[in-house]
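User: Can you help me understand a structure? I only have the sequence.
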Amino acid sequence: MLTQLTVLGATGPIGQQVLQQALTAGHRVTALVRDAARLPQRDDERVTVVIGDAASAADVEEAARGSQALICALGPGKDYKSTLATRTAGPVLEAMAAAGLERLVWLSALGSGDTARRQSHFQTWAAKLVMGALMADKGIADETIARSDRDWTIALPVMFANGPTTAGYRTIPLDGTRGRVGGRINRADVADFLLSAATGERWVRRRVILTR
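Assistant: Let's start by predicting it. Here is the structure, written out as tokens:
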């Protein structure tokens, strides 16, 4: 079934994967970007480009209108002190409510907030050493999303790797399961999960660990 999706972070490494996989699957996409020149698919007739800022509720609302789901694939790049997650969570929720959009798939990370309890010991140590502020910020944003009345899914991938989709990655509910999780997951597989979650109902109002 043809679906209209809104993607935030479409010029990033995972957002690009989401956008291309969505087009391959036959969906139409509205991409909210700061700079259209950075979007390789900007001239594709199936892609609507909205210039704006994901921290602006008005800009996100414009991009969200008419869509069946919003995928937030924003990432901090190499800024390990980024507050991008907390700066965008509130405006995204506000915009979705204004646009009448219920379905939200939110990219976070295993190690955000209280999810560090499920990380492998090595990745817990590494995250605290290098990305402590970033993971704390993501955790606050995750809680904002989880307290909302939207039909949300929060994706919690382990460390990223490059490579194609494998169809063999694991999805582990954060709640209701035990044990520490490590390893890596291809960005293409993360994108596959974000897209499948946005177009399905299996993971509504759940936090999901992604790993190989």
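Now, to help you interpret it: The chain has a mean pLDDT of 96. Helices lie at 13-24, 57-64, 84-99, 121-146, 187-198. Let me know which part you'd like to focus on.
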